[in-house]
Amino acid sequence: MDEERRRHLEQELPDGFSRDLLDGALRVLADQDNPMRAHLFAVGLRELFTYLLHNAAPDDEVRACDWFRQAPDTPGVTRRQRAVYASQGGLSDEYVANLGVDVADLHRQAITAIDALNRATHVRPGRVLADAEEIVAFVEAAVSALEGLLEAFKTCRETVKEVLESEVYNQMMAAFVERTFGDIDLVASHGYEVDPFIAIDSIDIAGITASEILIVVVGEAPVTLHYGRGDDATEIAHDFPFTMQLTAPTDAPGDVAFSDCEIDDSGWYGDGDDDDDE
Fold first, then answer.
1. Using H for helix, E for strand and C for coil, what is the string for 114-171?
2. What is the pLDDT of residues 48-91, one digit of tens each?
3. Distances from the Cα of 209 to the Cαs of 20, 114, 246, in angstroms?
4. 3-state class of 58 per DSSP?
5. What is the CA radius of gyration of the chain?
6. CA dist., res. 64 & res. 66, Å (int)
7. Which residues are paired to 244 by β-bridges?
8. Following DSSP, what letter does each residue of 65-108 receive, concatenated?
9. Eight-class DSSP state of 268
10. Are strands 212-227 and 234-249 parallel, antiparallel or unpaired?
11. How would residue 278 be classed by pLDDT, with cut points 50, 70 and 90?
12. What is the mean pLDDT of the chain?
C-alpha cells in the first residue's frame, strides 16, 4: 500500500486502536521473509473489521431500530445488520433510498472480504498463500472493502446533512431569536439582540442512533449588547462563537429541534488574548 493511500485510510479510522490494528497488519505483511505474512495480515485486518462494526453498531442499538429483523440462522446481530446501522442508524430503508443513497454494494463487499479473511486465518498445509500475485490481489480486495465500508459509514451522514441543512439553519436562527442565553445576557445589562446573519463554520451529523439524528452546528453569532437607558443608552457589537446541538427523530428526520448550546464568551473577557499591553 502506498503512503498516500495509507494516510487517507488512517484518517478515516475512528481512533488510535483501529489505526494500531491497521499498522500491525501492514507491518507483518511487509515482512517478505515471513512465509505466513498474508495469513497474519488477514488476522489483523479481520479484527479491524470486527472492531469497526461492533464499535459503530452496539447490539442494543441495532435491535432497537424499526428495520431490524432477527435473522433466522443466528441468535445475534449479523455483520450486515451492523454495517447497515453504522451507515444509517435507525433511518428507514425507504428514507435512505429516497435520498438516493445506495451503500448496499459497499456492505456486500465488506462482508465478502470478512469471509475471505476468516478463511485465510484458518491456514493448513497446502493452503498457504505464497504466490506474490495472489497475495497482492488478496490484500487489494480486503483493503478496498475496508475503504468501501468506511465510505458507506460517511456517505449516508453526508447526504442526510445536505438534506437537513436548511431546516437546521432555520431552527438554529429560531433558537437565537426565541431563547435567552445566559452567557450573553450576563454581559448585557439591558438585553441584547442577535443580528440577522449568523456565520456558520460547520454543520455535522455527529451521530445517527436508533431513535435520533444528532446534529452539531459551529458558528459565530454577531450580537448587539445594550447598556444604560435614555441619554445614557449605548450599544456594543460583539461576536460570540457557539456550538449548538440539535436533534431530529429518525422516524421524522425533518423535525429538527434545538437541544443545547454552548456560548464561548472568553473573547468578551479577553481570555486567550496574546497581545501584550502597550
1. HHHHHHHHCCCCCCCCCCHHHHHHHHHHHHHHHHHHHHHHHHHHHHHHHHHHHHHHHH
2. 999 999 999 999 999 999 999 999 988 999 999 999 999 999 99
3. 27, 24, 14
4. coil
5. 25
6. 6
7. 217, 261
8. STT----TT-SS--HHHHHHHHHHTT--HHHHHHTT---HHHHH
9. H
10. antiparallel
11. very low
12. 89
Check residues 79 and 233 and name the one with the higher pLDDT.
Answer: 79
Where does residue 81 rank: exposed (0-12), middle (13-18), buried (19+ CB within 10 A)?
buried
Give how far the C-alpha of residue 194 lies from the chain's centroid of Cα atoms, to the nearest Å. Answer: 30
pTM of the full structure: 0.82
Q: How many Cβ atoms from other residues are within 10 Å of residue 161's Cβ?
A: 16
Average of pLDDT values for 238-266?
A: 93
Asked whether the beta carbons of 96 and 85 are under 8 A apart, the reply is no
Place of cell 479473511: 117
The residue type of 100 is G
